[in-house]
Amino acid sequence: MSADVTQIPGLLAGLAAKDIKIWVDGDRLRCNAPAGALTAEFRDQLRDRKDELIAFLNMATAAARQQPAIIPLQSSGTRTPIYAVPGHIGAPFSFSDLSKHLGDDQPFYALQPSGFDGQSEPMDRVEDIAEYFARQIIQYQPTGPYIIAGYCSGASTSFELAKILGQRGAEVPCIALFGPLHPSTYKELPRLLYFFARRSAYPHLRQMAKLPTFGARLRYFGSRLRILGERSRALVTRIRQSKEPVTTDPVLASRARLKSAAITALRRYIPTPYSGRVCIFLPNKAWLRSGAAPHRWLRVVPHAEFYFGSDDCHDVLMLEDPDAPAIAELYRQATQKLNGT
């Protein structure tokens, strides 16, 4: 794989973060994006790197026919391989920056849930999702050890996955939970709405903090309100002017079904005690008492180890640059204690 192609996972992660969907249709690259998400920079990259993107996506599709859950972000290296569960939207490339900063000697595999490809049906029980991943991992790598990781709401599935692998005799030296969202929060609607509203607003608050003056911050805030208003008016206009029934894009529809099924699964899930090693990586110390309620994991893993990022790191961006190098260093510090890593 060329040096340029190795950067494709990072580009895909950036697109996924903006909810921009791309797929291959014959010799063409198709795209679906929310209003305003497809910036000029993204358009240029899609145009200039079309052939590389098509080759990478075709390669990933071919590999998925054998193990559809296994997405190799870094397949070489001598350290204990990491198998990582993404958040509830199931985007495997959300781990791209973290994998890159863990280095060439760290094998790293993202786990893609059933339903993410739009061809299979999503599952609505954490235990079933974990069982699906366990079968895929064992097919791909019949013997351990495995380090199981999870991000945000993916923490529940990774927790259950590690237990299944351990029950089948596999060595799981560590579960690594990055910014874990405790499943009990999905049963507390006001808490959950506040948490996700705060997550959505944080990137803009962070951008405002970089501006030098109060006036500049106020202008930025006003521009975001104007953009939001323009998008809302444009959507209303399109609906009013449309003479055809509104149709749902199949890619967006499949992702919506996956998200709904994942939330249903988390609402049903109740974690049980686990005796193995669990490392919890939080963006910062204040986040310990955030709406994500990560401290509740201590109810089933009282011996869990906590590692904290800097005060200006936040969960939405903790696995992305520029925060990813610091989180990767925290992971290295934690796993230095493990034999063979």
From TrEMBL:
One Pfam match, given by its short name, reads TubC_N
According to the entry, every stretch annotated as the Thioesterase TesA-like domain falls at 83-270
What Gene3D superfamilies does this protein map onto? alpha/beta hydrolase, Non-ribosomal peptide synthase, adenylation domain
InterPro entries on file: AB_hydrolase_fold, TesA-like, Thioesterase, TubC_N, TubC_N_sf
This one is known as Thioesterase
What's the source species for this entry?
Answer: Bradyrhizobium jicamae
The record lists the lineage as:
Bacteria, Pseudomonadati, Pseudomonadota, Alphaproteobacteria, Hyphomicrobiales
